[in-house]
Every structure is written in C-alpha cells, then in structure tokens.
Amino acid sequence: MKTVLILNGPNLNLLGTREPQVYGSQTLADVQALCERSCAANGFALDFRQSNHEGELVDALHEAGRLQAKGKLAGVILNAGAYTHTSVALHDAIKGTGVTLIELHISNVHARESFRHHSYISPVAQAVMCGFGVNGYALAVAGLAGMQAAT
Ligand code: DQA
C-alpha cells in the first residue's frame, strides 16, 4: 500500500478558530480524520503533517521525493498556506525532487486579496484544487488515486 503525504503549512494548526468565515469551523484534527477516511477508501496509507516552518516543509518534500522514488509514496497534497505566495524554496524543492504534488487551498484564493492570486507552487504541481472548503482534502486524495490508476 502506498502512502499519501498530506502536508500543511503555516497557521493551518489554527483551523477551527482562525477566520471561520473563510476556513470553516473544523479543526486540523477533524481534517486529519477526514483524510484518514478518504485514504482508507482509496487504498492509501496516510502521513499527515503540519509545520509553521518553511525549512521543515522543504525537508518533508525531500523525504517524499525519496519515498516516491522507492515506490512507497503515491504523492503529496500540499496546502502551503501563505508560503504558496512567497516561497521559491518550496517551488525548487518540488521541482528538484520531481515529486507528484497536488496544490490545495481550503478557500478560493482567486476570489480573495490580489496577493493570494500568484502561486509559486502551481507551475510545479500536477493539479491545483481550491475553494471546496476542507472537503477539498478528500477530493484531492480521490484525485491522486485517479492519477495513479491512469499511470
Ligand atoms: C490557504 C490560502 C492562503 O492564501 C492562506 O495564506 C492560508 C490558507 C487556504 O487553504 O485557503 O494560510 O492556503
């Protein structure tokens, strides 16, 4: 069974209390439980993480690249939070490892402030998902399963 790494960036540990009108009322633990169910339904094991530190996210992407090369990882679902809009380091890590990656946002970033309209992740992602609320995580897992089946 292959693993899916679901990687959450800065401030996503605040889900549930952070701007609930934008991100909803479910906590990160709720999202993890949703991802557990979705991974089980799609035949994946789950590795679910959150970090507020850019370098830790880079390290996790490097590890993911190594695991994917060994056939142990199906891919990464990355909600990079605000680093989406700033991080050349995350862009380079995804490009440099060649890891299969779905960019995810809970909110529709294109309907928000203009500084959220540019993503350093999108050009190196296989797919981009935004605006489905936290249910987007489950949809992204199903999307990754579909990608696997097509290869
Ligand atoms: C986010 C959107 C980002 O612009 C923001 O900085 C976040 C969360 C989302 O999930 O909608 O932290 O990635």
Anisotropy-based shape: globular
CATH topology: Rossmann fold
The number of helical elements comes to: 5
Rg result? 14 Å
Write the layout of secondary structure elements.
Blueprint: E1 3-8, H1 20-23, H2 28-41, E2 45-50, H3 54-69, E3 73-79, H4 88-97, E4 101-105, E5 127-130, H5 135-150
Parallel strand pairs: 1-2, 1-3, 3-4, 4-5
Residues 11, 79, 81-82, 84, 105-107, 109, 116 line the site of 1,3,4-trihydroxy-5-OXO-cyclohexanecarboxylic acid.
Give a written overview of the molecule.
The protein has a single domain, classed as Rossmann fold (3-Layer(aba) Sandwich). α4 links the parallel β3 and β4. It has a 5-stranded parallel beta sheet, sandwiched between helices. The chain has 5 helices and 5 strands. The chain has 151 residues and is α/β, with parallel strands linked by helices. α2 packs parallel to α5.
Key attributes of the depicted protein:
5 helices, alpha/beta, binds 1,3,4-trihydroxy-5-OXO-cyclohexanecarboxylic acid, 19% strand
Describe what is shown at a glance.
By secondary structure, the protein is of the alpha/beta class. The protein contains five helices and five strands, in the order E-H-H-E-H-E-H-E-E-H. Strand 3 (73-79), helix 4 (88-97) and strand 4 (101-105) form a beta-alpha-beta unit.
